[in-house]
Amino acid sequence: MALGEGGDHGAATLPLIADQAKHGGGGGIVRSGSMWTAAAHVITAVIGSGVLSLAWSIAQLGWVAGPAAMLVFAAVTALQSTLFADCYRSPDPEHGPHRNRTYAKAVDRNLGSSSSWMCMLLQHTALFGYGIAYTITASISCRAILKANCYHEHGHDAHCDYGGSYYMLVFGAAQLLLSFIPDFHDMAWLSVVAAVMSFSYAFIGFGLGLATTIANGTIKGSITGVQMRTPMQKVWRVSQAIGDIAFAYPYSLILLEIQDTLKSPPAENKTMKRASMISILVTTFFYLCCGCFGYAAFGSDAPGNLLTGFGFYEPYWLIDFANACIILHLLGGYQVYSQPIFQFADRFFAERFPDSGFVNDFHTVRFACLPACRVNLLRVCFRTLYVASTTAVAVAFPYFNEVLALLGALNFWPLAIYFPVEMYFIQRNVPRWSARWVVLQTFSVVCLLVSAFALVGSIEGLITQKLG
Question: What is the pLDDT of residues 195-246, one digit of tens each?
């Protein structure tokens, strides 16, 4: 099962990855990836819509704790990727005959089938959550385009409000059509477009933040961040900010898929570790620039979404272009995060009901002026229900920062920390209660506490927004 990224991450990467691990003429797989191609995949995968919330996150934490938190998460991601890279081959990390090409396969081989099922449940929950987050973000960007034009025409004080539910339904309808793309190999074109769009809007956000800071002639913000009415409100905001930063970083969902493209020698785990270090350094530098310049430009008024919160009004055409890039990126990103669930459902029902015509039969459908297409009734029903459910949840909880924080908190510890650490113990035969075992278990427990803190804060934020 090929899986999308952890972080909202430029989900557009997986079909590009698949192109570098093609079947050779003799039936084997020709792997041609290098350290640089792997680093490029990781950078493309990680940089996504999560970058838009980083200025708001730093505003909640302040000039000291904000950048420090980003550096800490970068270090944690570096350690996690180092541990996880050793899980690609079994039983030996460098010479083992068994390749674990997906996260779930690695967990199954190292920790057993029960852990594998739990891993798949968490992964699919995460992928479903990304579909919700992408629906919310696309709706916000649609409204931002309309608002930018309205403010440009009628002034910044004009009453330019647009409902979000309509645009979520439009985005859901578009995803329903795209959901009938058979699989990853038929959507590489969509992936290329999405990858280009993610870099475009991220660079625009960085550039506008830098330009505004220079125009202001001063660096806004404070050491302690946004002041809240009560200490408890400050605690909740800090926890949400940590969840947003956690959402932006880890890429554990696709690390093994990237590693499966690498040629050897040298050993794949060594190449992947070097690629991870390069990509994390580049990504962290980019994140710090976007987050810090956004905070420097707006201070405590830093918007939750850098390109839709209207800290920037002009040039309005650039705001329109950036938000159009976001929408195009999310159209492709939603599909990359949804296709693994679609493929899992297709396999699961086909195995359970091998004689069912509803599950296995395909029917040819012809439309005027269009080529004939083959339709499977199970796919029509399941994918329609899936898209409808993500759209319905997004309509019920249309809160950008809180949803990103919730997803980051839910996925950070189990998928980015717990499973990689436990598999590392098995791969490296680390004795229980040895110094390395104690250090890594302590690291895992600390990350669990951080994840729980962010989870509680994000849930509180969702409830407050819903009731408020």
Answer: 678 778 888 888 888 888 898 888 888 898 888 888 888 988 898 888 888 8
| Burial environment of residue 345 by CB neighbours within 10 A (0 to 12, 13 to 18, 19 or more) | middle
Q: What's the first-to-final CA gap in the chain, in angstroms?
A: 41
Helix (H, G, I), strand (E, B) or coil at 96: coil
**Burial class of 198 by CB neighbour count within 10 A (0 to 12, 13 to 18, 19+):** buried
Residue type, 65: A
Q: Position 199: which residue type?
A: F
Give the distance from CA 465 to its chain's centroid: 23
Which whole-number Å values give the CA distances from 256 to 84, 188, 205, 260, 406, in the listed order? 8, 19, 30, 6, 25
Sign of CA dihedral 288, 291, 297, 301: negative
Question: Alpha-carbon distance 104 to 122, whole Å?
Answer: 10
- How many whole angstroms separate alpha carbon 389 and alpha carbon 42? 30
362-365/373-376 β-pairing: antiparallel
200, containing H or E segment:
helix 188-216
Asked whether the predicted pLDDT for residue 459 surpasses 50, the reply is yes
The answer to whether 440 and 425 are in contact (CB under 8 A) is: yes
pLDDT in tens, 313-344: 778 888 888 888 888 888 877 877 787 788 78
- Length of the chain as a residue count: 468
Q: Are 293 and 59 in contact (CB under 8 A)?
A: no
Contact 301, 312 (CB under 8 A): no
Neighbours of 429 (CB within 10 A): 7
pTM above 0.85, yes or no: no
d(CA 322, CA 198): 9
SS3 of residue 443 by DSSP? helix
Transcribe 275-294 into DSSP letters: HHHHHHHHHHHHHHHHHHHH
pLDDT at 26: 43
Q: Does residue 280 contact residue 76 with C-beta atoms inside 8 Å?
A: no
